[in-house]
Every structure is written in structure tokens, then in C-alpha cells.
Amino acid sequence: MAIKNEYMPCLAIPPGETLEEQLQQIGMTQVEFSKRTGLTTKHINEIINGKASITPETALRFESVLGIPASFWNNLEANYQETKARIEAEQQLQSEIELARSISYAEMAKLEWVPKTSDWKEKVFNLRNFFGVAALEYIPNVIPVAFRKSEIKDASALSLAAWLRKGELISQIIKTKPFNKDLLKESIPGIRELSVKSPREFLPLIKDLLANCGVAFVLVPHLKKTYAHGATKWLAPDKVMIVLSIRGSFSDIFWFSLFHEIAHVLLHNKKQVFIAHNNRAHDELETIEDEADNFASHNLINQRSYQSFLQNSLSEGSIRNLADELKIHPGIIVGRLQHDKIIRYDQYTHLRARYVWVS
Length: 359
Prior knowledge:
Helix content: 55-70%
Order of helices and strands: HHHHHHHHHHHEEEHEHHHH
CATH topology of the largest domain: Arc Repressor Mutant, subunit A
Largest sheet: 4 strands, mixed
Strand order of the largest sheet: 1-3-2-4
Strand content: 5-15%
Low-confidence stretches: 1-8
Number of domains: 3
Shape: elongated
Number of helices: 16
Radius of gyration: 31 Å
């Protein structure tokens, strides 16, 4: 986007000052002028002091009394209003630049979310377009979930909002069928079994399966200071977005995050936006997130099979056997065992696949 360098006046002069000069030149008082124009003295005084505007009708009255074309007064008023608006916009821009400094603009530009630039005014304009807002201060109004109180000290609400917004922009262009809750439930086993495939194989299949259920599924690179694993948001009554962060490379984290977000789609309020990260500062949110965690755990690994598995001697062979039985990647079982503190985090890690994401 090209930004023109324009002269920015530091003062907006109301047209009333010109009117006052004209009256002084011809020796006419405001009282006399009000009688001749049919306007009140108070109104004339307000125009002179910039508290009232010169309307086209008023300009015609001035033309009749002073002999100065109405177009002159209309132009004076229009120029005054434009100058005043530009000054106010410049002041607004300066405050927005401070907000823009809180966003990882360089990181966003590297990902080609916004154009590269070193000019802070251009950055503000680009960020307005990216978020679809008239001013950056309105971002909390349209993405309030990113601005919940966080217990993570260096978390950036604006960067989190940018990450979620990118997910929305991608999701909006994904074609999906109307949301079908029953079909989504029926698709869970098929989605789970895709965990044995590589990302190159399973990603297109997951996207198609979920789109058929009314779910737009996207992967978005994480931004610094966001700490988000995934998010769920209803874009329309019959379309929901699931966005996962390309952050952790371990396969089990990806699959757990995906099923966690599917839980929000199936179990929780359509009006609420859910972001999965390490911040659970609210009791209500903690309960909801726990429900989603339990759903993910039980739908990835059958609870009865898992408990039976724990009764026997644990080995790489037993892990692989359970994975074969459940038709899932063995890394998912290792991740569960590590999370449940059944094994140390350095045990059987070689069974946890690492994904390489290509954006």
C-alpha cells in the first residue's frame, strides 16, 4: 500500500473567523447580521467561534447579505472539517502506533500476513486491514477472548488476537457443508486412525472429513508470546472453525489438541470462543477445558483398553501392541503415559513422531 506524504496543518481554522473579518470590514455587528440573515445572534456567534457549522442553506443566506458566493462558504466549511478530521486522525494514528509496537509485526510480515515495511504509519494501516477494524483500539471489541486476564506474564493479547484472526481469514474461504453434529461424532474413529499416517497424507484427509461435517480446519504458525495450542470459534450457525498452532512438533500433542477442539464443537456453547493454552485463570473455563481434555483422552485411547494395558508389564512391545489394537500412532500412548506420570518424559520418546510442518 503506497502512503502519500501530505502536508499536515497543525491548526484547523474555522470559517467563522473569515466571517468575522468580513463583518468587521463592512462595519456590521453580529446583531445586525443576524437580523439580515434571519438567524439568531447566538447562532451567528457559535459559527464565528467554530461551535456551529455553515450549512449549504446558511451559505446561501450569507451570499444574499454579503455578496460572497455560497460556494466560497461551503468550501471554507468543507476544508475546515477535512483539516480537523486529518488532525484528529493524526493524533489517533500516534496512539495506534504505540499499540502496534505490542504486536509482532516483523514476525507477521515474515509469514506474509501483512506487507513488509519499516514505516510505523504503514504498519498501523496494514494492521487495520488485517484485523478489519477502523482503529487498532477496537481489536478487543471484535476478538475479546484474546484479552482475557492471563496468568502468563509475558503473554501478548494482541499477538494472540492476530493468530486467531489469521485462522478466521483462512477459515472464511474454506468451503464446508452445513454443520452436522451426528456426522462429526461418526467421523471420530476415522479421524483417529489417520494418526498412523504422515502429515502429508493425513492433513488433506482431515480437512475434507471435517469440512464435510461443517468444520473448517486450519493450521496457523504460532506467534511469539501467544502460547496457544488451538482454538474453536463458530463463524456462522452452520460453520465452525478449528485452528491449531504449528508450535509443538510431537505427533501426540497435535492429535490431543485436535480432539480437544473437537470436544468444544460437540460439547460446548456455540456463542463462546475457546482458546487452548496454559492459562486457566477462570474456574468456569477450567471446568470446560477439563471436559475437553477428558474427551480428547478417552476418544484417542479407549479407557478400558488403557486400564487393562496398565495392569501388565510395560515395554516398547506392549505399547506398540496397544497402538495396533486401537489403530493409533504409538506416540499417542507414550504421550499419555508421560502425562499421567506412569513413565518419565525421557522414556520411549523415540516412539513419539516429530512432525515437520511446511507452511
